[in-house]
Amino acid sequence: MELVIFILTYLNMFSFIITEPVIKVGAIFPQEAEQNFNYPEMVFQYAVHKLNLDKSLLPDTQVVHHTQYITNDSFQAVQKVCNLIHIGVQAIFSPSNSALAAHINSICAELDIPDIGTGRSTQEFSINVHPSKQYVNYAFIDVIQYLNWTRFGILYEKNYGILALNQLSRSVQSELHIRQVSPTSYFSVLKEFKHKEIHNIIIDTNSADIAILLKNILQQQMNEYKYQYLFTSFDLETFDLEDFKYNFVNITSFRLVDMGDVAVKEILKDIDLYNRRIFKQNQTVFKQQKSAVIETNAALMFDSVYVFAIGLQSIYPLINLSNSTCDDEVPWNGGLSLINYINAVEWKGLTGPIQFKEGQRVQFKLDLIKLKQHSIVKVGEWTPQNHLNITEPSLFFDTGSMNVTLVVITILETPYVMMRYGKNFTGNERFYGFCVDILETVAREVGFDYILDLVPDRKYGAKDPETGQWNGMVAELMKYKADLAVGSMTITYARESVIDFTKPFMNLGISILFKVPTTQPNRLFSFLNPLAIEIWIYVIAAYLLVSLTIYIVAKLSPMEWQFIIPCDLENITKRNQFSFSDSLWFTIGTLMQQGSDIHPKAVSTRIITSIWGFFSLIIVASYTANLAAFLTVERMMNPIENADDLASQTEISYGTLESGSTMTFFRDSMIETYKKMWRIMDNKRQLAFTTTYEDGIRRVNQGNYAFLMESTMLDYIVQRDCNLTQIGGLLDTKDRRQHKHKQRI
């Protein structure tokens, strides 16, 4: 009786298996997954299992999976794919290996078998559940621009990198250092980046070797707060970052799976239970996988199974079973329709919203995550429609979390840094000024304490051309005696090669400070200044000579004689109208253009007076023109007008601030005028160079000295001292930086 029941039960199960249609799918995994635990393969099996339990998608249908394992041998991979096609699979889930994916896709495209990939590579005619590489590249470019990286390095591995380096280099205006690496070269490249002080690094390598890379970072002691790492892997939450949590190192990445989503948590819990059951049935050692996280590749494998099922649902059971083989090379007549339906799938899976365009995934959401002291937190998100949206900007500039005290050096220069002299002022309270206010604001926003003090030698910093040694604030930074320097530091090529600068807050140049020429005091006879003394002597001599000539000629001319009493015929008396005094009066009246009661009658006297009148007209017009100019405009003539005048004379001394950027400019200049000026200053160092700006200004006020200084400081001084002025224009143009720093390694 029991035997009969067993036979009937067996026959019922057999009839069920026979009548229930079977959908065959194939999957390809690495060879090492056959001997060792492979989490993506387990998730793939779970997805097929869950799909068979869920009859809402493919009712009365059994999905059966067939698995093949391959190495890096392309010939072997082609054979394994042909084996799957010969079995009659209706879809192949290809690996993430981009080199082999191309061979697999070529066979599937030839036979119209859907090739559903989960890797970063993009293959024609395939369906890739991984987000489009182009959009992912845009996401990382947006992050780089948000972080304002002007100088960074990239570590990438061939066949594993997700970034399109050509597109990245064209999209960002930054200094890039790109290195192709392998696990054996991680250490040497990191050492090179540390030596070059490249603190911003993009890690675009194989996720399986991240543990080796993190170990090398620790060995190089590059796990400090000044380093920023941007990982292109979506599996940051699966990495062991315990040694990085408490050093304030900045580690940022994207994730594709939202671990906080309720539906995702339920699926991950179910996967964990399935994982335990499988290991128990196989009597193998159970390998614990964090139930709170899932590898991106495994999540994509889960979504790819459901994308295939949703696409198949739209055409099943109208589609015919695949009977293609690699030998016949006859395409599956239902494969192209199935590919089109899969392309039209819109669904939300473990990796978020899914939508395709020409086989590429164009709808997804990337969560931007950042390492904090106790956990990895979400700080923003990126979508192809809205691009980057930072929800927690304060976490990139976490106020007060660094808990560090920086040694800051400065130099006195009005109005940037000034000092209060008094017994009640100590420490940082001694200093005030524009740069000090900026330093205080930055410290409050970024979150660090500082100790501010003066540089010992009171110099900005210049390089000795003979010894190659630096002095001033630059030397203090290079020797790591200070972490930061604040002041009106001018950027030069030599300085920028050894220290880092912030962005400039003003443009400036070198100009000449000189004392305003003093005017001559007014004198009683200053009205004589329009004409030279020789001219006045000639005018007086001409006046006397013309008066004497008129007197003599009038005496000789009968026309200039007239009767005194014309009506008295008995006492006829004649008198000449041009006596000597009358001649003088007539001449001076003509010169003053006032005339007199005497008029010449003779032709000879009229000729003389006409000549004198014309002469008087010229003299008076010239004097009037010059007198107006002297009375309305007081001309102040500078002894120098530009640098050429300064270089071509020896009466006026000139110089600049010792060990400053202006001194370096003249020392290194190739222009002949500036080279000549440098030779003169170098030969007269005691007279030319000053230790402070105040000393140079004092010497200019004493006279006969020109001070070469930066235009911004010169403008500030000229506005407050009317005895000083700027001579000429700018000798050069450059940037001034608010802060400069060379961080401690």
From TrEMBL:
It comes from the Eukaryota. Residues 1-19 form the signal peptide. Disulfide bonds join C82-C326. GO terms for cellular component: postsynaptic membrane; presynaptic membrane. The record marks R667 as: Interaction with the cone snail toxin Con-ikot-ikot. Gene3D superfamilies: 1.10.287.70, 3.40.50.2300, Periplasmic binding protein-like II. This is Glutamate receptor ionotropic, kainate 2 isoform X4. It comes from Drosophila albomicans. The lineage of its organism: Eukaryota, Metazoa, Ecdysozoa, Arthropoda, Hexapoda. The gene is LOC117573166.
